[in-house]
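Appendix B, record 7
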Amino acid sequence: MRRLGLLLLALLALCIPAMAEDVRTSPSEVLGNAEFFNGKTVTVSGAVVNLREAVATAGKRSYSFDLTDGTETVHVFSAGSARCKAGPATVDGTFDKARQQVIATRVRCR
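Structure tokens (predicted):
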């Protein structure tokens, strides 16, 4: 029983830093604190505008769009087909300060 408790404690210690990396925020907050958010996993909410879809010569699809909160706009890039064509969305991904964009791992329409 004691071993199980120690194992659970060790697993919890490994999970806490990963959970702390995910930050819920807005485009204004991300761009206003670009140095802080650079390379971090973020969850950003806003409205989808300027959707652009592409197909590479190998047939791989990708898309990009701007996510705005009405004050600031952050660029979003993702592989696959666009789920959200316009309107409110939430994006999970990694912020890249140099490109001022979020490389999306998940996009959810709201």
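Remarks on this record: Residues 62 and 93 are 15 Å apart (CA to CA). Strands lie at 23-25, 41-55, 61-68, 73-79, 87-96, 101-109.
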